[in-house]
Input
Amino acid sequence: MRNEQLDLLFGALADTTRRAIIARLAKGEASVSELAHPFQMSLPAVTRHIQVLEKAGLLNKSVDQKFRRCQMNPSRLKDLSEWVEHYRKYWEESLDSLETYLADIQAPTYNHKPPTRLKQPKRKKP
Output
């Protein structure tokens, strides 16, 4: 995935309102006014959020008679999920290696016998 696409996706999902819109669309398509209903903002403000999501490819908008309907595009989330999964595997492997290394350096090593105490000769009493 190209950096520009990632920037658009992460930028679109960085906002709480846009994430809430995506969560609503995961339940099924909705009109712009239905998407705007739970938010205390103007319809034009919600429309701008929808435009950001549309530009990122996270939703598709269509006109149904006089209503603008929005539908989530799950393939873009799948692309993002695959990108994150790649790095999750990398970091898990790196952290596993670090854990092994730390366990090795913290574990006591007994490569040799512990020193034996030499018996002191008994002293004669004067």
Observations:
- The domain at 3-76 is CATH 1.10.10.10 (Arc Repressor Mutant, subunit A).
